[in-house]
Amino acid sequence: MSDTPSDRYTHGHHASVVGQHRRRTAEDAAAFLLPRLEPTMSILDVGCGPGSITIGLARRVSGGHVTGIDVVEEVLGDASELADDAGLANVTFEAGDVYALGYDDDSFDVAYAHQVLQHLTDPVRALRELQRVVKPGGLVAVRDADYGTMVHAPDVPELHRWLALYHEVATRNDAEADAGRYLYGWYLEAGFEEIEMSASTWVFTEPRQVLNWGDSWAQRITQSSLAKQAVEYGLATAADLEAIADGWRRWARLPNAFFTFLHIEALGRVPGAESP
Question: Which helix (H) or strand (E) element contains residue 264?
Answer without folding.
Answer: strand 258-269
